[in-house]
Task: inverse folding
């Protein structure tokens, strides 16, 4: 295959990954705390044999996580928390500490606040949040201070990756930071609310149509290249 074919194939591969990302975004429009994801296309140039021109190809391996605020929904749930602003809740999972914007928690049998799959919510000091079994009224202040029957228990911490590009998606609505975590200040935590997905259905469907159209055009180019090469081979073989 010659240079135009390789160039087109790398572009097709990137468009396929972009289509998969868009499809995943659309599938999670109703998922609490989901963050939209996209791909970053870049160009790289590789050197060929001596005397031949360089070959420019596309790369779409870098993923971009959209951390924009999602709409909030009132649930009036005592242990439903939503972040208004930047930052993530820190939870402890079997794979280590991870970040999430999905703030629907319940007390476990041991009295710790956990996610639906059992990950423990951590406070600003990295300690699991504990609710006394005899607590009757649990309240959360805007700064994350959690109280039971008027007595402060702890302060829920908000965290972010030190560098935005260090944030990587784990399963579902969880993220992990390759580098250090830093406390996030200035955000507000609301009790009785959850944050919805930040995916915009209209823009994602429009993007899906654009990617599909671009992929079809690339496939048509590859088909024409294949026909051209076949014609050349048939001519030379006569």
Result:
């Amino acid at each position: 295959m010659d240079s135009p074919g390789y160039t087109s194939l790398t572009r097709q591969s990137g468009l396929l990954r972009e289509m998969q990302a868009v499809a995943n975004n659309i599938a999670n429009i109703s998922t609490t705390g989901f963050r939209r994801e996209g791909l970053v296309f870049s160009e790289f140039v590789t050197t060929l044999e001596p005397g031949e021109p360089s070959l420019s190809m596309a790369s779409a391996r870098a993923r971009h996580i959209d951390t924009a605020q999602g709409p909030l929904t009132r649930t009036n749930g005592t242990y439903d928390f939503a972040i208004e602003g930047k930052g993530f809740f820190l939870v402890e999972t079997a794979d280590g500490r991870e970040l999430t914007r999905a703030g629907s928690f319940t007390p476990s049998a041991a009295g710790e606040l956990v996610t639906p799959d059992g990950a423990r919510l951590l406070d600003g000091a990295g300690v699991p949040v504990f609710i006394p079994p005899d607590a009757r009224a649990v309240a959360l202040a805007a700064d994350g201070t959690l109280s039971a029957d008027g007595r402060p228990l702890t302060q829920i911490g908000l965290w972010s990756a030190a560098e935005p590009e260090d944030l990587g998606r784990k399963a579902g609505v969880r993220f992990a930071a390759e580098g250090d975590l830093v406390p996030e200040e200035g955000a507000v935590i609301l009790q009785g609310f959850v944050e919805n997905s930040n995916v915009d259905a209209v823009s994602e469907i429009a993007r899906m149509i654009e990617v599909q159209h671009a992929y079809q055009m690339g496939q048509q180019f590859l088909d024409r290249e294949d026909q051209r090469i076949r014609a050349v081979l048939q001519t030379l073989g006569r």
